[in-house]
């Protein structure tokens, strides 16, 4: 099965924005849009995601655009504040999410809005990511009016001090639509920090349930690196699903 929509890359300062737009038949009105926090291999991952998404457009979910700012440095762009590395010889997480999302909202979003027929309404705009990208998506959505939908797929919610921060800012998700997922084996690790991911994700789901009627926690089979495109596609289909 071949892709029907277009996938292009637009220059944006020192970076670029990878942009997917559905086929022309769906571009007669303003489209919803999803911003994905992904790594350098986002083009390959997105191609796999689209094979699952496009057959659902106009059937189980509304057609939508997908964008991603590239390249991204996981340990800088998707971390809210500095914390030590998970490994003794590894690079520390440097906490550059504030600068990254300033680029996304102040430069990348206006650029895409000028080029594509996309909606500027928060309820039609999603922010999601995988691993540290999922952590960053929750962190930004809690404090940003641009995003009315959020997806954290295998999110690194074990991140130092994040559970307490999230609990204090749970009201930022009121009336928003939030998708969480985690692999069943992800908390079964030797690393004491990462072992907390299951409990942290369950607690986040409980807090979200208390403030919005549009939240879900889905459990997937496998560990952190199992079926990444499939997990992201599931999140997108849930966020953009057509009303029953």
TrEMBL record:
Signal sequence interval, chain numbering: none
The record's section on Pfam families has: Esterase
Keyword tags? Hydrolase
Q: Which GO terms describe its molecular function?
A: hydrolase activity
Judging by the UniProt lineage, the source's domain of life is Bacteria
Q: Say yes or no: keyword Hydrolase present.
A: yes
- Any stretches that span the bilayer, and where are they? none
Q: Has keyword Hydrolase?
A: yes
- Mind telling me which PANTHER family this protein's record contains? ENTEROCHELIN ESTERASE-RELATED (PTHR48098), FERRI-BACILLIBACTIN ESTERASE BESA (PTHR48098:SF6)
- Recorded protein name is Alpha/beta hydrolase
Q: Which organism is this protein's natural source?
A: Caproicibacterium amylolyticum
- Tell me the classification of the organism that encodes this protein: Bacteria, Bacillati, Bacillota, Clostridia, Eubacteriales
């Amino acid at each position: 099965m071949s892709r029907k929509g277009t996938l292009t890359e637009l220059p944006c300062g020192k970076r670029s924005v990878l942009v997917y737009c559905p086929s022309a038949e769906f571009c007669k009105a303003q489209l919803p849009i999803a911003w994905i926090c992904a790594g350098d291999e986002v083009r390959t991952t997105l191609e796999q995601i689209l094979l699952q998404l496009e057959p659902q457009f106009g059937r189980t979910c509304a057609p939508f655009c997908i964008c991603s700012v590239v390249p991204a440095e996981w340990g800088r762009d998707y971390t809210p504040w500095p914390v030590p590395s998970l490994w003794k010889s590894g690079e520390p997480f440097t906490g550059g999410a504030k600068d990254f999302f300033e680029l996304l909202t102040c430069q990348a979003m206006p650029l895409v809005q000028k080029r594509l027929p996309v909606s500027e309404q928060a309820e039609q705009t999603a922010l999601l990511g995988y691993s540290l990208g999922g952590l960053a998506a929750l962190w930004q959505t809690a404090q940003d009016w641009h995003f009315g939908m959020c997806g954290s797929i295998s999110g690194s919610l074990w991140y130092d001090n994040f559970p307490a921060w999230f609990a204090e800012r749970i009201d930022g998700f009121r009336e928003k639509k939030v998708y969480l997922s985690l692999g069943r084996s992800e908390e079964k690790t030797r690393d004491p920090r990462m072992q907390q991911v299951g409990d942290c994700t369950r607690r986040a789901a409980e807090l979200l349930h208390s403030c919005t009627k549009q939240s879900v926690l889905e459990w997937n089979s496998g560990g952190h690196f199992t079926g990444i495109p499939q997990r992201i596609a599931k999140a997108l289909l849930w966020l953009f699903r057509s009303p029953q």
